[in-house]
């Protein structure tokens, strides 16, 4: 508790600061760079947008990043036996160019990956098992599912080839004020429609069998989003691309990208909860007052530009928007609860049909949508720092397992999966949108110089999608500020980009 005199001094200071800030300096947009920019959230979206904003506006702009929890957001680790393990976003696709650039820029390294076989469990038996032989794996896929796996690969490759256009557009400074515009520029009406129909519908149309969808596609979606085939086709394609590509992660933890980018930009990190954003106008200029609460009480500060890099939907945010006319509409949709349990223990291989634990060959287990299954996926994970002498634990040894489920595992469920265990660490979070809860895509532009970065995850959610959204918002803010409207929502961008080369 603070002494009374300390409280009085603090109160007088807050009042004095409030008086000094009541009339912020008026600078017409376009005449000079913005003086102050606020970013709400220090996850991968917030940290990368801070980096991109400084890249475009220059080092003179003051960047304040508000974070109520820890830097990294949904990129997080837990400690078991003095070693750290990923519990949030764990893998990055080899085609994720922004994440690749961040790692090079920050002098980070790719983590050494240890190979491990995967299998899909139906609750009674394994529907599909990976072997050490590539040709045998292909033969098994063909034997079980015919040409479905090839048709899937062709469909995903076509989607990814079109998606990769975003890097060219952004390299030439083009930005989009609506998600629909961004998607349309990449894949026309097809990409926009893919956010409105399920991945199952799209896959059936290209000749993929229902059995392949029920056993393989569902298992991949449950492992990535904790959800099944009602997931929209675009989000599903991004998830399936991850299942097929070369995946990597950052040595020391993926959250090092977030802390590294914020350190590089010399952003001012404010450990506080943003409670409100109020709109003000003075001499034709729009500016914002960000209200927040920290350990010392309430405070506020004025900004030229505000980027919200945290979810705003119903059960995810308590930020109120004040003085907006018309008011900013509420965001429909909810988030999907994902529970991550990190368990140090001995796997009960008998549950999976292997009475002798020494014979259990899998490091990763995906699951179908069978009602008897109480978990979405589980994998034998390695620490974020892997030495040259590190080896994966043998199946009969106590290992670190990460289990994803929709509810905290009950004691009986833990006993089903493990013969015995030393520790259980549970993290319950709303990691992804519940894709069945809203059919509309949220806006990117909430008001002049007020942007919502996390709208992107309603199209698809991943580290790279957040980085793409961050680059888009930074370009959007820069182009709007400098009234360069030719760089916003342009049509036929592929032709324009080719002529600029």
From TrEMBL:
InterPro entries: FAD/NAD-bd_sf (IPR036188), Prenylcys_lyase (IPR010795), Prenylcysteine_Oxase1 (IPR017046). Keywords: FAD, Flavoprotein, Glycoprotein, Oxidoreductase, Signal. It is an enzyme of class 1 (oxidoreductase). Gene3D superfamilies: FAD/NAD(P)-binding domain (3.50.50.60). GO terms for molecular function: L-amino-acid oxidase activity; prenylcysteine oxidase activity. Residues 128-490 form the Prenylcysteine lyase domain. Its EC number is 1.4.3.2. It comes from the Eukaryota. It holds the Pfam family NAD_binding_8. Residues 1-21 form the signal peptide. GO terms for biological process: neutrophil-mediated killing of bacterium; prenylated protein catabolic process; prenylcysteine catabolic process. Its cofactor is FAD. Belongs to the flavin monoamine oxidase family. FIG1 subfamily. Belongs to the prenylcysteine oxidase family. This is L-amino-acid oxidase.
